[in-house]
Write a structure and sequence with these properties.
420 residues; OB fold (Dihydrolipoamide Acetyltransferase, E2P); Dihydrolipoamide Transferase; 7 helices; globular
Length: 420
């Protein structure tokens, strides 16, 4: 029996998702767990796995299509099984025939469903997140757009149709259209344009908003990591002897030190909310994770109540979920974490200025380990390994003195590392 593949609902606020790429083709054999396609919400990027074994009989949407959640995206079954009954059709419309290139429908339906205007709905307009961004960029009046999505919802393709109409009208009225064609005798400009992914747009918006709407200041400090490296060496040796033992990394150890400092300085474990500062009783630690889809910052909930082994397992689990594209989007919200750690040590970065994930009051940047001269006792100088620490804090919420004491506490925790 054929099985439909539906677009998952990733969070209660998500109403539609954008297909960013198909990883399997129509007619291809698939197994449970095989990746079928990638998709994005307005918060994160994900991969869809096959729910059953079989053949990918039909694909209903193309790359770039915006698909309502819970709509059928594809069908898996035995070769020869009918799929037309699974094809999503908008109310009062017939499904568009499959495109010859992919065998999928480019639009949700051929006959558009006319949306009610803003005046008819009391001023409320149903619109997808991507369509709203497109409308803002093009300066399009939403009250004049007819939505073809479920319930008359305005989709991205509706905005594009209106924008195309505006361009055609401008050309008919003799408005000059600028092209990249060079003048005679000039060499053509060689470049390529890559549209921003939904995740890249979100990152750009968040970073710009953070720098624009807060008073950020960064303090830098270095920590002697001889003790830390010795502890890491012992843990690694023990884990190599016992496969069941968790391999605790340097990053896990640093996060452990940060959590202990946050419990001692709770004013850093807070959100600045314009008219108030919300201080949390538990540490919800955000950890920046670099993925092929872009930067993600999942939160380890109640990290302050965990021992270092549990923390290590949770950090590893969340990092893998981000890279596989199946992270819970609720954990990616900036409000999910109370403080964030961003570790660029593996990239060889000696110093940097991390950007706060608002409304959090601070973020710690962890740099690589380098050797510096220092007094190693009895007037003898030698080179010791040190790690750079960069604390960016919101000066609206925290003064420089308490921020420095907090950073020094992290330094002390690292230099006198204790697994207990």
């Amino acid at each position: 029996m054929a099985t439909p593949v539906t677009m998952p609902r990733q969070g209660q606020s998500v109403e539609s998702c954008i297909i960013t790429g198909w990883l399997k083709k129509k007619g291809e054999k698939v197994k449970i767990g095989d990746l079928l396609f990638s998709y994005e919400t307005d918060k994160a990027a994900f991969d869809m796995e096959s729910p059953v074994d079989g053949t990918l009989l039909d694909i209903f949407f193309n790359e770039g299509d915006e698909v309502p959640v819970l709509a059928n995206v594809a069908v898996i079954g035995k070769e020869g099984e009918a799929t037309e009954s699974f094809r999503p059709v908008a109310s009062g419309a017939k499904a568009k025939p499959a495109s010859p290139e992919t065998g999928s429908a480019n639009e949700f339906a051929t006959a558009p469903v006319i949306a009610e205007t803003a005046a008819q709905t009391g001023g409320k307009i149903k619109i997808s997140p991507r369509a709203r961004v497109m409308a803002d960029e093009r300066g399009i009046d939403l009250s004049l757009v007819n939505g073809t999505g479920p319930g008359g919802r305005i989709m991205a393709k509706d905005i594009e149709e209106v924008a195309s109409g505006v361009r055609r009208q401008a050309q008919c009225e003799g408005v000059k259209v600028v092209t990249d064609k060079p003048d005679a005798g000039q060499s053509p400009e060689v470049f390529s344009d890559k549209p921003l992914s939904n995740v890249r747009k979100l990152i750009a918006k968040a970073m710009h908003s953070s720098l624009q709407n807060s008073a950020q200041l960064t303090h830098h400090m270095s920590a002697d990591v001889r003790n830390l490296l010795e502890a890491r060496k012992r843990i690694k040796a023990e884990s190599s002897k016992n496969e069941a033992q968790q391999d605790i990394t340097l990053n896990d150890m640093i996060c452990w030190c940060v959590i202990k400092a946050l419990l001692k300085f709770p004013e850093m474990n807070s959100h600045f909310l314009d008219d108030k500062i919300r201080t949390f009783g538990s540490v919800n630690l955000g950890m920046a994770v670099d993925t092929p889809r872009g930067l993600m910052v999942p939160a380890v909930k109640n990290a302050g109540a965990m021992d270092i082994v549990t923390l290590s397992k949770e950090l590893k689990k969340l990092s893998e979920a981000c890279r596989k594209g199946n992270i819970d989007p609720e954990l990616l919200k900036s409000t999910a974490a109370s403080f964030t750690v961003s570790n660029l040590g593996n990239y060889g970065v000696e110093m940097f200025t991390p950007v706060i994930n608002l409304p959090q009051a601070g973020i710690l940047g962890v740099c690589n380990i380098i050797h510096r001269p220092a007094d190693i006792g009895n007037g003898v100088f030698g080179f010791i390994p040190v790690m750079g620490l960069s604390l960016t804090y919101d000066h609206r919420a925290i003064d420089g003195g308490p921020a420095t004491l907090f950073l020094r506490e992290i330094k002390n925790n690292i230099e006198h590392f204790n697994i207990n």
